[in-house]
From TrEMBL:
Gene3D superfamilies: PucR C-terminal helix-turn-helix domain. Residues 352-410 form the PucR C-terminal helix-turn-helix domain. Residues 191-305 form the CdaR GGDEF-like domain. This is Purine catabolism regulatory protein. Pfam families: GGDEF_2, HTH_30. The gene is pucR2. It comes from the Bacteria. Belongs to the CdaR family.
Length: 420
């Protein structure tokens, strides 16, 4: 025999007891006699069984349900019939009683193993069975009309109640997903253990492995749903998954997918439109969510330092803020400047380090630099081109010149401390 959830059995027994008390009291609604109500009571089990049989014959997916789930549906139908009869028995009762009975009888995880569309199909089949069998139990045409009208109202209330139940479940899942997403973003910022972070992300459907880029800035408003909508709608336009959360006073967005040079500006620009006023800083793109803490660390460091560059673009990469970050005391930025600029120049031949140092000290005047080094100006031009090729920074560009100048100073300080 199919097993039934104990909670549902207890609830059904309570409803049947209330139904019997109402009938014993001789109450009736809209002219239904006590004898008719008794016939309805005796037929309740057969109605539920007939409904289940009809579902099995009409719906292939219902036949594939496990026995315990089919038993739960049987109890729901029995509770629905019992509530319907209680409503008919009480002159002042409202169809609300039926809805409350449905909610009490339905298992809490109903929405997990059956969709709203499937639930509506079951309700429709059960109502069809009721419409076929219940009118036959009426004593005359007046009672038949009362039963027919009651069935219609009964079906409407059950359908609305099912929709309400699923909406509540969806809302609860959404709230849980939002909390889980916030935990993931917080873990990215704090650099949590890789296993726990990936486990939580997998629960939200985040593909593994997938590249990740962290963007930080001001939230567009203090309303969390509005923040979610602003960012998610823009991420959908570029077909990218996102994880986001407000961390303190900052909005942190983890953007999924590789951002290559050809589309970087467009993708990051669209996502940054979901932020509020103020600068938006994007960290480096890393290979997976497990490494996203490095992108978040650089992005947050850049957000603290970007105030020193009022003309910074929006969004700006954290790697473009290396001099400001180094001046703000970020050891990671100092290390990158040494590794990307100072060491390559120091290890190169041809006097590149001395040339770029002299060129920056004379304010970028080529002829003066050449006189200082006792070389021809064309030699200086050649060496500056080599510097640009080696480091990626052109000494003739004002912004690149600042990066080179800060990198040289940071490098010499690191050399004095014996760090290289």
């Amino acid at each position: 025999m199919e097993s039934c959830p104990p909670r549902s059995i207890a609830g059904t027994h309570a409803i049947l007891a209330a139904m019997g008390e109402a009938i014993e009291a001789g109450q009736a609604r809209n002219g239904l006699s006590v004898q008719t109500l008794r016939r309805l009571e005796y037929a309740s089990g057969g109605l539920a069984t007939a409904s289940i049989a009809s579902m099995q014959s009409v719906l292939p997916w219902f036949r594939r349900l496990p026995a315990d789930q089919r038993a739960s549906i049987l109890l729901i139908i029995q509770a629905g019939v019992a509530n319907f009869i209680v409503w008919l028995s009480e002159s002042e009762a409202a169809p609300r009683v039926t809805a409350e009975g449905f909610l009490r009888a339905a298992p809490k995880d109903l929405s997990r193993w059956m969709s709203l569309r499937q639930t509506v199909e079951l309700v429709r089949i059960a109502i069809d069975v009721f419409e076929q069998q219940l009118p036959e139990l009426a004593a005359d045409d007046d009672e038949r009309a009362v039963l027919t009208e009651g069935i219609l109202r009964f079906g409407r209330e059950i359908a609305f109640t099912a929709a309400t139940s699923y909406a509540a479940a969806a809302e609860a899942r959404g709230a849980w997903d939002a909390r889980l997403e916030s935990l993931i973003v917080d873990g990215v910022v704090r650099g949590d253990a890789e296993e726990s972070l990936l486990s939580r992300a997998s629960a939200l459907g985040w593909d593994q492995p997938v590249a990740a880029t962290v963007l930080v800035g001001n939230p567009p408003s203090t309303d969390p749903p509005a923040v979610l909508y602003e960012v998610r709608s823009r991420a959908a336009r570029v077909s990218r998954p996102v994880l986001l959360g407000v961390h303190g006073s900052r909005l942190v967005v983890v953007l999924g997918g590789m951002v290559d040079a050809t589309e970087e500006r467009d993708v990051l620009l669209k996502i940054s439109e979901g932020f509020g006023d103020g600068p938006v800083v994007a960290g480096p793109t890393v290979e997976s969510l497990a490494d996203a803490h490095r992108s978040a660390e650089d992005a947050l460091s850049g957000l603290r330092a970007v105030v020193a560059w009022p003309a910074a673009p929006r969004p700006v990469r954290s790697t473009d803020l290396l001099p400001e970050r180094a001046l703000a005391g970020d050891p990671g930025a100092e290390r990158q400047l040494v590794e990307q600029v100072m060491l390559p120049l120091a290890e190169s031949s041809g006097g590149l380090l001395e040339t770029v140092q002299a060129y920056l000290e004379v304010g970028g005047v080529l002829e003066t630099c050449a006189k200082t080094l006792f070389v021809h100006p064309n030699t200086v031009r050649y060496r500056l081109r080599r510097v640009a090729e080696l480091t990626g920074y052109n000494p003739a560009d004002p912004r690149d010149a600042l990066v080179l100048q800060v990198a040289l100073k940071v490098g010499r300080l690191a050399q004095a401390r014996g760090l290289w």
